[in-house]
Amino acid sequence: MPRKSQIPIRKRAVVGVILRHNTFLTIRRSQQVVAPGKVCFPGGGIEHGESEQQALVREIREELGVTATAGQRLYETVTPWGTSVAWWHAHVEENAQFALQTAEVAETHWLAPQVLLRHPDLLTSNRDFLVAWGRSTFAIPGIAVPPDWDEISD
Ligand SMILES: Nc1nc2c([nH]c(=O)n2[C@H]2C[C@H](O)[C@@H](COP(=O)(O)OP(=O)(O)OP(=O)(O)O)O2)c(=O)[nH]1
């Protein structure tokens, strides 16, 4: 997905990339939201007057019931449906206990990058994000691109 897009921006969203022991925190979206059952990162729409960091912390609190801190801004994409997505590294405490808002989030899983990339229910825009990471378009602090990445991302 190109970073500079001709697609008109209709909405802005923020996504949290949270790591633990070389795995990503992923959510399975509930059946009641857009893209039901898809697997992606926590996140959501940026409200009027909110910064990306504020939206990131609010969305993670609403969806997972934990307090996150924003790390660095990793990347930016525009989805084919016109949402500008800011991808942020984020942190939660090692022993944080999630309290899921089940109307939005059906379940959480810590997934290795290779598992996430090959996940049959992965949100397509997240595949683009992972492929861009594998091409070193940007780095994610604390995790290296797996050596077999090229073979599995073809
Ligand atoms: N949550 C989330 N959204 C993503 C990811 N990747 C991606 O392209 N998006 C897009 C899908 C949506 O267009 C937008 C935000 O999605 P959303 O459905 O979770 O948020 P929303 O604004 O509809 O709902 P809300 O939580 O703000 O109420 O970002 C991802 O990994 N996680």
UniProtKB/TrEMBL annotation:
Cofactor annotation: Mg(2+)
Top-level enzyme category: hydrolase
Keyword DNA repair applies: yes
InterPro entries according to UniProt: MutT-like (IPR047127), Nudix_hydrolase (IPR020476), NUDIX_hydrolase-like_dom_sf (IPR015797), NUDIX_hydrolase_CS (IPR020084), NUDIX_hydrolase_dom (IPR000086)
Documented EC number(s): 3.6.1.55
Family: Belongs to the Nudix hydrolase family.
Name of protein: 8-oxo-dGTP diphosphatase
